[in-house]
Amino acid sequence: MFSRPKQLSLELGSPPPSTFENFFVAANREPVQRLRDLAAAVAQERAADRLIYLWGEVGSGRTHLLHAVCDSGYQAGIRCRYLSPHHALSDFIFDPSCQLYTVDDVELLDEARQIAVFSLYNEVRAHVRTAIVVAGSQAPLAMPVREDLRTRLGWGLVYQLAPLSDEDKMTALVQAARERGLQLSPEIPHWLVTRHYRDMPSLMALLDALDTYSLERKRAVTLPLLREMFAELRE
User: Fold this and answer.
1) For position 182, what pLDDT does the model report?
2) CATH topology of domain 164-233
3) Which CATH class is domain 29-160?
4) What number of CA atoms fall less than 13 Å from residue 123's CA on the CB side?
């Protein structure tokens, strides 16, 4: 088993922006299409389902989709706000000029921020030109949050995100490589998925690092080159 380089995450840099275009849909076609349509529907004041809750295990794509929703909102010309447990409490206050809110890792919010999200739900429901998408690790009834917020999480549409299988991840890597004009030797996707990082953000960051490494050395992307890159990162 290949040991994970301790400093690898520092060397890879930031992953590419999260959009719907680079999200591998697999078994999540319905929720992804619903989220794709949301920003345009809000901009045109025709959004029928304005309260959406997503849940799934780590690596299922929750954070990617929330950022993708905001990206589509900006493209539709509306103001969006991405919120997480790391954001200031003041960021959770409802702003009538903001039409689309996304809240990540709701189960990790402290009580003050949970109360703020509860208020956001109420405000969004009262303002027909706004929408909110919240993401968490469990179904609404199982969420370890305040009872009043737990109730709100189930008010609108609820979708469970199905995690990608190893085969899906390998297909996603091949697709992403093709989009970058990168030719992978057949064993690389399997090696990365089965012997290294298993979440898609890390796998995509690895792919970008490998692309840069191969260009710098003017060599094809092969398994020996990949192992060489990891050996250098571990030094």
Assistant:
1) 83
2) Helicase, Ruva Protein; domain 3 (1.10.8)
3) alpha beta
4) 18
